[in-house]
Each structure stands twice: as structure tokens, then as C-alpha cells.
Specification:
The protein has 338 residues and is of the alpha+beta class. The chain has helices at residues 14-21, 205-221, 231-246, 250-260, 268-282, 286-296, 300-303, 305-320, 327-332, and strands spanning 36-41, 45-48, 53-56, 67-71, 81-91, 98-102, 118-122, 127-130, 136-137, 147-153, 159-163, 166-172, 180-185, 190-195. The strands form 2 sheets. The chain has a 7-stranded antiparallel sheet, with no helix packed on it. Strands 2-3-14-5-10-11-12 form a 7-stranded antiparallel sheet, with no helix packed on it.
Length: 338
């Protein structure tokens, strides 16, 4: 059987599915979340079934009995668009459950969304909570048997949820990076199972990724770009020339300007002067560098006291190491005493 989205094939292993969804992620450097953490959780959280099932084992009398757990790893930025799902095995006594994201260090004795850098969608009222104990009307409630998905767009910082494969819309905007998948429970009997890609997702996240790429491509194509004949090449030439001038590559800038038939925006003498001063600084000859600046650009350091101070501090460090001295500066009379 062929699937419109290959990642939905049940024959794939978790590694194969994650590689399809997140081809740019190098898990040796930034591992993907694959289960819940046995250490990063509150005491009332119990884990089983390879740390994918979460159950509540507290008293559940007040909101102070809420407990959450984070995944083992934060979501890598290279995912572009990341997604995970949880299935509600049992809503327990009251169904006070939250699904979402949180940063490292956020209090786990709370449901996701109640504290700063914590974001959650709650099952008992369908509200979304954005770093606040006050929720906003967002989606339907959820209960036993429902599958809730959470997706985060790492490009624009938006977050959305799904219920039983249906997109519920954007819940949060401008989220920070480095967030962890997080779930929270509060009353006895609540049990959820997580799907971090070990099974096909209920929601077609791969189709969502294709739509995101299509929209991004549309934005790129709609960008204002010179349409007149030759303008595009002129813009590119100017970009290269500006880069070379800014970094002081005088000889390369001069050669490039000749071949492109352009004028350089800064005189070659000025570029060479900047390049010379840069070499002096990198060589640890701060006294000579300060003296040269005073000679070539009188008054510059007087107007930029912070720069002058930083150069003096660097000079002192170089003097301690024996790489510089005050001789040049004192001979030229260019430096002032500090």
C-alpha cells in the first residue's frame, strides 16, 4: 500500500520515520526527544512502557498536586517543524491534563502553561495557557481515547495543536528555542501514552511540512527583486564589492571592481589603512595601533572613549605577556595617560 506521506507507513522503524521527517537533524550533536525523562519530572509522575507511558500517582486534591514531566532532550532547531502526539489512555477522575512545551528549569510541580517559558493545552476546559495561570479559549476539551498533537514551527516560533488528526489552529506565537515536549497530570487515574515517532502519527505532519515549504517558496518568489535587464547582476556585484570593502580586502576589491566595471565605495588608501591597523591589533602591537589611529584619524579615539579604553586594556594584557610596550606611544606623543 502506498501512502501520500511516506512517514505514515506502519512498516517504518522509528529511526526511518524521524529521518524522513527531520533530515537536517544530526542526532549525534542534537538528539531528538524519544521518551520522557526519568529525572526531569515531579514525584507524582510514574513512567512505564519504555518511559513512553505517563500515569499520575499523587493525591490530586488541589492544584498543588499537579505534576509534569519533560522529554529527555530539547527540540533541535534544525527540525524546522517539530511534532509529537499523546493518546489519552484514561482521563482519570477529573481529566486535569495538559500537553505542551516548556524550557529547562521550569517548575514541574505545575501543569504546562502556568509558569514563564511554559505553554500548554488543557483537557478539562480546552483552554491554552501561555506562561500564565489564566487560560484563553482555544479548542475543544479532550478525554479518554483522544489523540492530541503538538507542533512547533522553529522558523517563526508558532505552536499549534491537533485533536484526532484535525488541526486546531495556532495556539501560541513567538516561542523561544530550546523547548522540551511536556505533559502534566493532576488527578488519580490519569494515563497518557506518547508518540515521538515510533508509530505513524494520527495527523499528517508530513503534509503540513509540504504546505509550509510551499508557502516559504511563495514568499521567496514574491520578494521584491530588480526586474530590469542587468539589475540583478548589478545588485550581486554590489553585495560582493561591499563585503570586500567592509573587511578591508583592498587588492581583491580592486580586482573585482575592475572586472565588474564598478567603482569602489571607499578609497583604497583608507582600506589599506584600516587593514594595517587591524594587523597591528591582531599582532598584539596595541601601542603602535593606537598611535597609528591617532595619526590617521585625529580625534577618533577621543570621541570613542569606550573603544579607547578597550584598546588600553588589551594593551595592558599584551604588556603583561611581554608582547607590547609603551615606547612607541610615548615616543609619538599620541597617547594620553590613564
Amino acid at each position: 500500500m502506498e501512502y501520500e506521506s511516506p512517514s505514515q507507513s506502519p512498516t517504518l522503524t522509528q529511526d526511518q520515520r524521524l529521518k524522513l521527517l527531520y533530515p537536517m537533524v544530526n542526532e549525534e550533536e542534537t538528539p531528538l526527544p524519544r521518551c520522557w525523562s526519568t529525572k526531569d519530572k515531579y514525584n507524582y509522575i510514574g513512567l512505564s512502557q519504555s518511559n513512553l507511558r505517563v500515569h499520575y500517582k499523587g493525591h490530586g486534591k488541589t492544584h498543588k498536586d499537579a505534576s509534569s514531566v519533560r522529554a529527555t532532550h530539547p527540540i533541535p532547531a534544525s527540525c524546522g517543524l517539530y511534532y509529537f502526539e499523546v493518546k489519552i489512555i484514561s482521563k482519570g477522575r477529573d481529566g486535569y491534563m495538559g500537553v505542551g512545551l516548556s524550557a529547562q528549569g521550569v517548575n514541574m510541580n505545575r501543569l504546562p502553561g502556568w509558569d514563564k517559558h511554559s505553554y500548554g493545552y488543557h483537557g478539562d476546559d480546552g483552554h491554552s495557557f501561555c506562561s500564565s495561570g489564566t487560560g484563553q479559549a482555544y479548542g475543544p476539551t479532550f478525554t479518554t481515547g483522544d489523540v492530541i498533537g503538538c507542533g512547533i514551527n522553529l522558523i517563526d516560533g508558532s505552536c499549534f495543536y491537533t485533536k484526532n488528526g484535525h488541526h486546531l489552529g495556532i495556539a501560541f506565537q513567538d516561542l523561544p528555542s530550546g523547548l522540551y515536549p511536556t505533559v502534566g497530570l493532576q488527578t488519580p487515574g490519569e494515563v497518557i501514552d506518547a508518540n515521538f515517532g515510533q508509530e505513524p502519527f494520527k495527523f499528517d505532519i508530513e503534509g503540513e511540512m509540504r504546505e509550509l515549504r510551499r508557502k516559504t517558496q511563495g514568499v521567496i518568489e514574491d520578494l521584491s527583486w530588480p526586474r530590469k535587464h542587468g539589475d540583478a547582476q548589478a545588485v550581486l556585484h554590489n553585495m560582493v564589492s561591499t563585503y570586500l570593502v567592509h573587511h578591508g580586502y583592498s587588492q581583491t576589491a580592486e580586482s573585482f571592481a575592475r572586472s565588474a566595471g564598478q567603482e569602489i565605495s571607499e578609497e583604497l588608501t583608507s582600506m589599506r589603512n584600516r587593514q594595517h591597523i587591524q594587523k597591528l591589533v591582531l599582532a598584539g602591537k596595541l601601542g603602535e595601533a593606537i598611535s597609528t589611529v591617532d595619526q590617521l584619524y585625529p580625534g577618533l579615539l577621543a570621541l570613542n572613549q569606550d573603544l579607547h579604553f578597550r584598546l588600553k586594556v588589551r594593551q595592558f594584557i599584551e604588556m603583561v605577556s611581554g608582547a607590547d610596550s609603551l615606547e612607541i606611544e610615548s615616543e609619538s606623543g599620541g597617547g594620553k595617560s590613564w
